[in-house]
Design brief:
Number of strands of chain A: 62
Distance between the termini of chain A: 45 Å
CATH superfamily of one domain in chain A: TonB-dependent receptor, beta-barrel domain
Order of helices and strands of chain B: HEEEEEEEEEEEEEEEEEEE
CATH architecture of one domain in chain A: Beta Barrel
CATH topology of one domain in chain A: Maltoporin, Chain A
Oligomer: heterodimer
CATH topology of chain B: Jelly Rolls
Radius of gyration of chain B: 23 Å
Strand content of chain B: over 45%
Largest interface: A-B, 75 and 61 residues
Number of helices of chain B: 1
Chain lengths: 905, 227
C-alpha cells in the first residue's frame, strides 16, 4: 500500500517535470496471442539516469498487478511475459521509471496504475483459425472516453447471422462525427457504417468463420484524439458450434384428504418436468401420476415428450394439446404423435393419435352387461330367449389430421387441412369376466308368464345356467349394443389470408365441411341401398318422385351417376343411412338458389375476418357461420347452428392508461331457409378503464346490454289454450369498480369497491296477459375489499360482499311475486413470513349467511404454511374446516388438508 | 401583406425545424430472428426489423410466432430481449448523461437485463402492471386478459398492479403475479416456468466431472467439456 502511495506521489512530482523534455518512448506491440511469449520494451529519452525501471501487468479485469523489474537491453528496457500467462480477456500494463533527478517517466503518461494501457490479446492459434491483423494503437496524446461496445462483446463467439457491429458514443459529448473511422479486419468500412445520434452500426454482408477484429478511432470537435478502442470476436459456423447445454426441471408430490358431504376423497399425485436444451434444440418431458386414474374412465395420468429443433421442427409424443383450427382440433388432448415442420414458406403439420381411450366397462352392477327393457320373448317355435345387452364402454377414438400451408412473402397465406376421427369397433370386448347385472321381477315376466328365475345379481354364466334351467337361451348380439354407438367423422377445409397496409390489416377466410356418421355398427351401404335412403321406391334414383299416373314429377339423383361407391371408401369414411348429411347440400335448392345453397350447407362452417392492429386502435370484424349439422369429434364443444357478426374495437389512449372498448355482436340461427322464426341475440358492450398509474385511484366502468328476440309475433294454440311463446327481452348488466390506494403511517392500503347490477326487461310486458310469467332474475352485488401491506412481512385482506337476487315465482293461482335471496359474506385473511421468507404462514376466517327460503350460515377457517427446506425445495401444508348452521343445528360441512412437496432443479 | 409574409416564413422555419424534432435515438437491435416488425415512431405502417436498426423513442416492435429480437440501450448497455408473439413500444428520453427508459408491453414475453441506472428507474409497463427497477434481470410475461407474470432472476423488482394500486417487491428466485382482478401475489419461482432465452450466450461451456476410483483407492477426476 505504501508503495502505491509512493508511486502515486512520484507520478504527481513527475508532472512538475513535464516540460523538461524527458519522455518515455514505447510502441505497443501487435499480434499478441495467448501461448506466445510477449516482450514489452520501453526507451526513456532523458538526460538523467534510470534509477529503477518497473513494469506492471495483469489480465484485464484482475485487481492485482504482477510487478516485474525491467531488464536493460542496450538502450531499451524490456519486460517478458510468459505466453501461458496471457488471456483472451486482454492485458493491462504500464511502465514506471524513476530517474536520477527524482523525477519519473511513465507509460501511460498519466495515472499508469489507474489507467494502464490495454492490449488486445488474440486467442491461441489453431490451424483452422485465420489471423487478422489489428492495426497499431497509436501512441498519441489521447483523451480517454467511454465508448460502449454494444455488439458483439469482446471475445464473444457469435453466429454469422448475429454479426452486427455497434458502438455507442452516447457518453462522449462533442465527438467530431467526421473523424470517426471504423476498421473491421483491417479494412476501413466507415462509409458502409451508419453513424447517427451517437451510434455507430455496421452490418457486414457476410462474415467468414473465424476471428475478426474491430477498431474505432475518433476525435473531439477540437481535434483532440480520443483513445481508440479495438477488440476481437469470433464467428462460428457449421457444426463447430460450441453448444451450451442447459437443463432444469422440477418434481412435486401432493396428497389431498377431503371430506365433502359425508364422503371422503383421498388423492395422491406425483408430477415432474424436465428440460434439456442445447443451441440447436431442446427436449422437454413431463409426467403426472395420480391415484384418481383408473381403467373405468378417460386417463388422468399424463406423459409427454417434446423435441424441438429450432423453429423448423417440433415433434411431440404422448399427451399433447394442439390447436389447428376451431373447426377441427382446438386444444383438446391427443395421445399420440404430432409433427410440425415449418420451413417459413411452407408448413406441414401432422397429428396421429387417440382422442379417447377404450373403456371396457364401468366398475358397478349393470356397468358392463344388462338386461334391456322386456328382455324375454318366446318365438313362434316356442323357444324362450332372453336378450343380453352391453353397456358402460367407450371405444378407442383415433384421430388423423394433416394441414399443409404456404406463406408467400409474409403477405399471402393459404392452407388446406383434413381431419378424420373414427371409433374402433374392435377395441371393445363383448365378454367381460366378472361383470354382474341385476335381474328383477319385470325381467323374468314374458308374455304374462313369470319364469322361475331368482331375482338378484347374476354373472353371465350364472344367468345362462338359470335360463337354461327353464328351457331358455341367451341372445347376446355381437354389435348394435345399447351403449354408445361407434362414430365416424371427417372434416376437410381450406383457409386463405392476406396481410395489408404494412401488416396492420389482416384478412382471412376459412371454410370447412364435415361428414359425420353417428352409427357405423353396420358398416357402409351399397349403391343399391342408396337408392332408398330418401324415398322408398327402388328405381335407381335418389329422391325421385312420381305423380299419380307414374310419371316423374321430380327428377332425382341417378345412382349410376354417383362416382363413388361407399363400400370402396369405407376405410376413409363409412357412409350409410346414419350419415349427416346424407346429401351434402340441398340438391333441389341448388338449382333455384345456387350461391345461397352452397354457402349455407348445413354441414359447413366458415368465417371471414378482418383484424386491424393500429397504434391506438385494435379492431376485429368477423362473420362466422356454423351449420347445424357440422360436427368435429375433435372439438365436440363447438357451438353449431349459429351465424354471427362481431365487431370489436379497443382504443388505448394516454399511453395505455385509458382504455375504451366497444363490442357489437349479432347472432341468430337462421342458416337454413326453412327457419322462419330465428332466435336473434344482439349484444352491445362498452367499457372504459382508466388507470392513471401507481398510487393513483383507478376506475372501471362496464355496460352490457343483451337483447333476445325469437321472432314470434303471434300467440300459439296448444290444445285448447293459447300460449305466449314470444320472447323479446333485454338484459342490462352494469358494473363499476374503483380502487383507491392510500397509506396510514407505514401501512399501505388498497380499498376496492365493486358494484354490479343486472336488470332484465320484458319488452312485450305491455302486450301480454297479466298472468304471463317472465322468469328472469334481477340481481345486485356490492363488494368491498381492503388489502393492507405492513412494514413487517404481514399482509392482510378483508372482504365484505352482499348479493341479492330477485327470483320471480308464480303460485298456483297465477299470482306473480318475487322471492329475495340475500347472500352476505365476510372474510379475513393474513400472510406472515418468518426467517427471511423461509417460512410463510397464512390463516383466514370466513362467514357466509343467506336470507331466503332456506337460511344457512357457514363458518370457515383455513390455515397453511410453506417452508423452504433448502433452495428450490419446498414443503407445504394447508387445511380448512367449514361448519354449517341450518335449521338442524351445527354440522361439519367440509374439511380437508393438503400436503405437498416440491423440488426444483 | 407583412402578416402573410411572416406566416409563410414561420411555416418554412417550422418545416425546416421539424426534422430536428424527430424522436430521440435510444437503442440498437443486435439480433433479429424470425418474423419481427417495427412501426417507427412518427411513421405509419410496419416494416421488417433488421439487426443493427437504430431505435427511437416510441418505436413499436411486434414479433411473430417464431420471432425474436434483442435490443440494447446506448447509454448503459441495458438489454431487452423480446420473445415470440410479443408487442412492445420502446420509450426513452435523453437526460443529462443517461436515458430514462420505459418499455410498454401489450402482450407477450420479454427479458430485461438492466444495468444499474444512473438516474431514475427502468420501467416496464403493461395494461395491468408497472415493473420498475434500478438494475436487475427479470422476465415479464404479459397477457392482457389475465395479467402479468414477473420472474426475477437477480436483484429486486417493484411490481405495481395498476388496477388495485397494490405494490410488491419481487426478489431473485421469486415470481410475482399481477392479475387483471387487481391481485398481486409472489411465490417461489418454478425453474420450469422460466422461459428459454434463445440468446443465452453468457452460459459458460458446460463441463462434466466424473470421479473414478481405482483399486488402490486413488480418486481421479475425468473432466469432459461439452461443446
Amino acid at each position: 500500500m505504501m508503495k502505491r502511495i509512493q508511486i502515486a506521489a512520484l507520478i504527481l512530482l513527475s508532472n512538475l517535470f513535464a516540460f523538461s523534455g524527458s519522455y518515455l518512448y514505447h510502441e505497443p506491440p501487435l499480434d499478441v496471442r495467448v501461448g506466445q511469449d510477449l516482450i514489452l520494451s520501453a526507451m526513456p529519452v532523458s538526460d538523467n539516469q534510470v534509477v529503477e525501471a518497473q513494469g506492471y501487468y495483469r489480465i484485464k479485469g484482475n485487481i492485482s498487478f504482477q510487478e516485474v523489474h525491467l531488464q536493460n537491453v542496450q538502450a531499451t528496457w524490456e519486460m517478458k511475459i510468459n505466453g501461458r500467462a496471457l488471456s483472451e480477456k486482454g492485458l493491462e500494463y504500464c511502465f514506471i521509471f524513476k530517474m536520477s533527478d527524482g523525477g519519473m517517466l511513465a507509460f501511460p503518461k498519466e495515472n499508469p496504475l489507474e489507467q494502464p494501457h490495454v492490449l488486445v490479446v488474440l486467442p491461441m492459434i489453431f490451424p483452422e483459425k485465420i489471423i487478422d491483423v489489428i492495426e497499431p494503437v497509436f501512441q498519441q496524446e489521447f483523451v480517454s472516453a467511454e465508448i460502449l461496445i454494444l455488439a458483439p462483446e469482446p471475445e464473444a463467439e457469435i453466429n454469422p447471422d448475429d454479426a452486427v457491429i455497434a458502438l455507442s458514443l452516447f457518453n462522449i459529448p462533442d465527438v467530431d462525427s467526421a473523424s470517426i473511422r471504423l476498421v473491421v479486419d483491417g479494412k476501413d468500412v466507415t462509409e458502409q457504417a451508419e453513424i447517427s445520434g451517437g451510434i455507430v452500426t455496421y452490418i457486414p454482408k457476410r462474415f467468414k468463420k473465424g476471428i475478426h477484429s474491430v477498431q474505432l478511432t475518433l476525435s473531439m470537435l477540437d481535434g483532440t484524439p480520443i483513445k481508440p478502442i479495438s477488440w476481437t470476436f469470433s464467428v462460428l459456423g457449421g457444426l463447430a458450434i460450441a453448444g451450451n447445454v442447459d437443463y432444469r426441471g422440477d418434481i412435486s408430490a401432493r396428497y389431498l384428504n377431503e371430506y365433502v358431504g359425508e364422503n371422503f376423497l383421498n388423492v395422491g399425485e406425483l408430477r415432474g418436468n424436465a428440460e434439456v436444451s442445447v443451441d440447436f434444440g431442446k427436449v422437454k418431458t413431463s409426467f403426472r401420476q395420480t391415484t384418481r386414474d383408473n381403467p373405468y374412465r378417460q386417463p388422468l395420468n399424463r406423459f409427454s415428450t417434446a423435441l424441438q429443433f429450432g423453429e423448423f421442427l417440433d415433434i411431440r409424443m404422448g399427451d399433447f394439446y394442439r390447436s389447428i383450427s376451431p373447426y377441427t382440433l382446438d386444444g383438446r388432448r391427443v395421445r399420440g404423435l404430432s409433427i410440425d415442420i415449418d420451413l417459413k414458406f411452407v408448413r406441414l403439420e401432422v397429428i396421429q393419435g387417440q382422442l379417447n381411450r377404450k373403456v371396457q366397462h364401468l366398475n358397478k352392477t349393470n356397468g358392463a352387461l344388462l338386461l334391456p327393457l322386456n328382455p324375454g320373448k318366446v318365438d313362434t317355435l316356442g323357444q324362450l330367449s332372453f336378450t343380453m345387452d352391453r353397456t358402460g364402454y367407450t371405444f378407442d377414438r383415433e384421430i388423423t389430421l394433416a394441414r399443409l400451408s404456404i406463406d408467400l412473402f409474409s403477405k399471402f397465406q393459404m392452407g388446406i387441412h383434413i381431419m378424420k376421427a373414427k371409433d374402433d369397433i374392435n377395441s371393445v370386448n363383448k365378454d367381460i369376466s366378472g361383470a354382474s347385472f341385476s335381474v328383477d321381477s319385470t325381467d323374468i315376466m314374458v308374455n304374462d308368464s313369470l319364469y322361475n328365475i331368482a331375482v338378484g345379481d347374476y354373472s353371465y354364466n350364472s344367468f345362462a345356467n338359470a335360463i337354461e334351467a327353464v328351457g331358455g337361451v341367451i341372445n347376446f348380439p355381437d354389435k348394435n349394443w345399447g351403449g354408445r354407438t361407434p362414430e365416424d367423422n371427417i372434416v376437410v377445409g381450406f383457409d386463405i389470408g392476406t396481410v395489408r397496409d404494412k401488416k396492420r390489416l389482416k384478412l382471412d377466410f376459412s371454410w370447412n365441411f364435415s361428414m359425420y356418421n353417428r352409427d357405423i355398427w353396420d358398416g357402409p351401404m351399397s349403391l343399391a341401398q342408396m337408392d332408398t335412403i330418401i324415398d322408398d321406391t327402388a328405381d335407381g334414383f335418389i329422391a325421385q318422385s312420381y305423380d299419380e299416373d307414374g310419371n316423374v314429377s321430380t327428377v332425382g339423383i341417378d345412382t349410376t351417376q354417383i362416382p363413388i361407391n361407399p363400400v370402396n371408401i369405407q376405410n376413409i369414411f363409412v357412409y350409410n343411412i346414419n350419415t349427416t348429411p346424407l346429401i351434402p347440400y340441398d340438391y333441389f335448392g341448388a338449382k333455384e338458389f345456387p350461391i345461397t345453397t352452397y354457402v349455407n350447407m348445413p354441414s359447413s362452417a366458415f368465417h371471414f375476418r378482418i383484424m386491424g392492429n393500429y397504434r391506438y386502435s385494435k379492431f376485429t370484424m368477423v362473420y362466422r357461420q356454423i351449420g347445424p349439422e357440422f360436427v368435429s369429434l375433435a372439438n365436440p364443444y363447438l357451438t353449431t347452428n349459429i351465424r354471427e357478426f362481431v365487431f370489436t374495437n379497443r382504443l388505448a389512449l394516454i399511453e395505455n392508461k385509458l382504455l375504451i372498448s366497444a363490442t357489437y355482436k349479432y347472432k341468430d340461427d337462421k342458416i337454413l331457409r326453412i327457419v322462419k322464426e330465428p332466435l336473434i341475440t344482439k349484444t352491445l358492450v362498452a367499457s372504459l378503464t382508466f388507470m392513471p398509474g401507481a398510487n393513483a385511484p383507478s376506475f372501471v366502468v362496464n355496460f352490457q346490454t343483451i337483447g333476445k328476440n325469437n321472432s314470434k309475433t303471434e300467440l300459439e294454440k296448444v290444445g285448447q289454450e293459447w300460449q305466449d311463446f314470444r320472447q323479446d327481452s333485454r338484459t342490462n348488466n352494469s358494473f363499476f369498480s374503483v380502487t383507491y390506494p392510500f397509506s396510514m403511517g407505514r401501512i399501505k392500503h388498497n380499498l376496492n369497491v365493486n358494484v354490479n347490477k343486472i336488470v332484465n326487461e320484458d319488452q312485450l310486458a305491455g302486450d301480454r296477459k297479466t298472468d304471463y310469467f317472465f322468469q328472469k332474475s334481477d340481481s345486485k352485488t356490492m363488494s368491498l375489499a381492503l388489502s393492507s401491506h405492513f412494514s413487517i412481512p404481514l399482509r392482510t385482506i378483508a372482504n365484505f360482499s352482499r348479493t341479492s337476487i330477485q327470483v320471480p315465482v308464480q303460485d298456483i293461482d297465477g299470482n306473480i311475486s318475487a322471492n329475495e335471496l340475500v347472500w352476505t359474506s365476510i372474510s379475513g385473511n393474513g400472510h406472515y413470513s418468518f426467517f427471511n421468507n423461509k417460512l410463510k404462514v397464512n390463516a383466514g376466517l370466513t362467514y357466509l349467511t343467506n336470507k331466503g327460503t332456506t337460511p344457512i350460515s357457514l363458518y370457515g377457517f383455513k390455515s397453511g404454511a410453506d417452508y423452504t427446506i433448502i433452495n428450490g425445495m419446498t414443503a407445504s401444508l394447508s387445511g380448512h374446516v367449514h361448519i354449517r348452521d341450518d335449521n338442524s343445528g351445527f354440522s361439519l360441512n367440509t374439511s380437508g388438508f393438503l400436503f405437498s412437496f416440491r423440488y426444483n432443479f | 401583406m407583412d402578416k402573410t409574409k411572416h406566416i409563410i416564413i414561420l411555416l418554412l422555419v417550422l418545416m425546416w425545424c421539424s426534422p430536428l424534432e424527430s424522436a430521440a435515438k435510444i437503442a440498437v437491435t443486435t439480433k433479429v430472428s424470425g418474423t419481427v416488425d417495427i412501426e417507427q415512431a412518427g411513421s405509419s405502417g410496419l416494416s421488417a426489423l433488421k439487426p443493427g436498426t437504430i431505435l427511437s423513442d416510441g418505436d413499436r416492435i411486434i414479433t411473430g410466432k417464431n420471432g425474436f429480437t434483442a435490443l440494447i440501450y446506448i447509454d448503459d448497455k441495458s438489454m431487452v430481449k423480446i420473445m415470440a408473439n410479443t408487442e412492445i413500444i420502446i420509450k426513452g428520453t435523453h437526460s443529462t448523461g443517461s436515458i430514462s427508459k420505459q418499455v410498454n408491453i401489450d402482450r407477450g414475453t420479454l427479458r430485461a437485463q438492466v444495468n444499474k441506472q444512473r438516474k431514475g428507474k427502468f420501467v416496464v409497463q403493461s395494461s395491468t402492471s408497472v415493473a420498475s427497477v434500478k438494475g436487475t434481470n427479470f422476465w415479464m410475461i404479459t397477457d392482457p386478459e389475465t395479467g402479468d407474470v414477473l420472474i426475477a432472476l437477480e436483484g429486486l423488482v417493484s411490481l405495481t398492479n395498476l388496477v388495485s394500486g397494490e405494490t410488491t417487491d419481487v426478489g431473485a428466485g421469486t415470481t410475482g403475479t399481477s392479475s387483471t382482478d387487481g391481485s398481486v401475489e409472489t411465490s417461489e419461482t418454478n425453474p420450469s416456468d422460466i422461459p428459454t432465452d434463445p440468446d443465452e450466450s453468457d452460459t459458460p461451456i458446460n463441463q462434466i466431472e466424473i470421479e473414478l476410483e481405482g483399486p488402490d483407492g486413488v480418486i481421479k477426476t475425468l473432466m469432459i467439456d461439452i461443446q
